[in-house]
Design a protein that fits this description.
The chain is of the alpha/beta class. The protein is 44% helix and 9% strand. It binds nicotinamide-adenine-dinucleotide and fe (ii) ion.
Amino acid sequence: MSKEKMNKGATPMKFSNDKMPVTKKIFMTDFTIIRQYNFPTTIRFGAGVINELPGHLAANGLSKPLLVTDPMVNGLDFFINIKNSLTVKSFSVQIFSAIHKNPVKSDVLKGGDVFKATNRDCIIGIGGGAAMDVARAIALRANHHRDLFDYDDLVGGDQYVTHSVPYFITVPTTSGTGSEVGRSAIISEDDTHRKRILFSPKLLAKMVFADPMLTMELPSFVTAATGMDALTHNMEAFIAKGFHPMADGIALEGIRLINESIVTATNGPDLESRSKMMIASLMGAVAFQKGLGVVHSLAHPLSSLLDTHHGLANAVNLPYGMRFNAPGLEAQFRRIASAMELTAATGEAVVDHLFKLNQQLGLPTKLSDIGVKAEHIETLSDLAFADFCHPNNPKPVTRDNFKQLYTGAL
Ligand SMILES: NC(=O)c1ccc[n+]([C@@H]2O[C@H](COP(=O)([O-])OP(=O)(O)OC[C@H]3O[C@@H](n4cnc5c(N)ncnc54)[C@H](O)[C@@H]3O)[C@@H](O)[C@H]2O)c1
Ligand SMILES: [Fe+2]
């Protein structure tokens, strides 16, 4: 979720036009300023690519992986198959799965201890965003021994990420966060549950095995909620502040792919729809290097305060957040409506469509349906206003705006 540091250190090039002939004068516009764009890593994508994992480890001289997952995935057939595929090849496999639904710092510290005590040579995060984030944070922890939250991006923590990190592989098994291609790990404080972001380009996985077959047994509710998180990433990235045509193009195609596949992927899954969701969720995370916005700031406090699943929190807030953003952003919403193939190319049509989509997916459309009560709204508004995402929203968002948005969604 951390804003891409794409422009860090990049100084706009200065030209003097004075001595140039009029026809060749170079005028500085958004298109002509030098910028740095960081795009992700090697991704093996497609049904069956997980079978390449043992060979990949062997080819890189690795034999002692720490598999990081969550307690639920740890018991699923596909995970046991991955573990067995490594065991028969005589690897020494260690599993760490003691993580919370919204992972906390102590999860990472325990995982870091296991990594060290069992003398591992690489880390493989297998699961949804929670497992992959913990795996990434353990990779950071291996050679960085300051307090974990000293590496918080919001307090400039990436400056301390100076050492190498162990070889790190991600294997997504949900299609939502796109954490497989991220450089940040979202880890909460144990006591307050406040979400912190550990960020460094060094935390990008060396290799991603994105195999849609691993999502075929994903329950419909998780498919819908994580898929709406991916849709939120693409939509928020597309309208986020800043100039990033590559992210915009990827986000629009991500919106198109999710819109055409999320209902089938949820209600009557086949490989094609689940594949489209997997690539589109990965694209969302590439696109949100540009930034996110008001919807994620509305969603994060729900996880902190009520332990709401991240995707579900986004799904419920998405139509309301987009209704807030639409006026004044007619051109962007026209393009979103077109990517969604709506008959009316307006913000209103997009918002109506999002409400209908949640209904088709069997997801709630009001905050009261997910346990939010009127007495939560003041605290939620404080937390949302303090959140790190809305500064990239195309419109400024005040604490009052958050209060109105929560109240309107109740
Ligand atoms: N790093 C990032 O850029 C980033 C971005 C957004 C969210 N996040 C974080 O990611 C987390 C949410 O991730 P998520 O939405 O993937 O949810 P999740 O990791 O919590 O997984 C959701 C549920 O699905 C189960 N599951 C996972 N794969 C399965 C499969 N193939 N079959 C059956 N069940 C399966 C899990 O056990 C879990 O119960 C939050 O902690 C959030 O803060 C990180
Ligand atoms: Fe998200």
